[in-house]
Amino acid sequence: MVEQHIRAWLQSFIVDLNLCPFARPLIASPALRITVCDGDNLEQLHLAFLSELDMIQQSSQQQVATSLLAMPNALTDFNDYLDFLEHAERLVEEAGLEGIIQLASFHPHYLFDGEDPQSPSHFSNRSPWPLIHFLREEMVSDALDNIANPEQIPQRNIELLEGMGHEAVKARWDALTKGGGQ
Q1: What is the domain partition of the chain in residue ranges?
Q2: Which end of the chain offers a freer environment for a tag, N or C, measured as fewer CB atoms within 10 Å?
Q3: How far apart are CA 64 and CA 69, in angstroms?
Q4: Each residue of 37-81: pLDDT tens digit?
């Protein structure tokens, strides 16, 4: 059920709203990996993260282009999630994978620092459960080379979501997460 909700979120928010213009070709690809860690403590999350990090670096891009690690039973507090994300980024660095693997962050209560808590812009990084997205930097670079003005993506997303309005974005979110997500 967790994976189904993540796939629905990817389709409804990331692809349908075009929040990430690189996601569309991967959404139905077997090279998109979604792993669910049912652990509820930091040690289990740490091991799941290391396992996923090892798996992606040992796999070819054709086998696993990108991976999402979902943690539905832990890190419900956004600040706890940010602490774990900081730990995860240190692990990438310690593994010598900086510049090879990049992490992206998504959380049900994602808030951009300094933004109004009611701003719809937060939904660009909200997901049904706490997630860490493992990206291959080479793929990111290639994708950025093939899109006009990639530096404008975050601003375009903010304008799109704010243009939709908080109520419309929240209704879309509620329809997606009702009965499964947070």
Answers
A1: 2-177
A2: N
A3: 13
A4: 999 999 999 999 999 999 999 999 999 999 999 999 999 999 999
pLDDT band at residue 142 under the 50/70/90 scheme: confident
**Residue 1 Cα distances to 4, 6, 7, 171, 178, angstroms:** 5, 9, 10, 21, 12
Identify whether the C-beta of residue 91 lies closer than 8 Å to the C-beta of residue 56. no
DSSP 9-47: HIIIIIITTTSSTTTGGGTT-TTEEEEE----SHHHHHH
Beta strands 101-106 and 131-136 are: antiparallel
Of 60, 179, 181, 84, the closest CA to residue 126 belongs to 181
Does the pTM of the predicted model rise above 0.85? yes
Helix, strand, or coil (residue 8): helix
pLDDT tens-digit readout, 116-127: 999 999 999 999
Instruction: State how far the Cα of 32 lies from the Cα of 30, in Å rounded to an integer.
Output: 5
Q: Which amino acid makes up residue 111? A: L
User: Is 112 in contact with 93 (CB distance < 8 Å)?
Assistant: no
Residue 18, CB-side half-sphere exposure with 13 Å CA sphere = 9
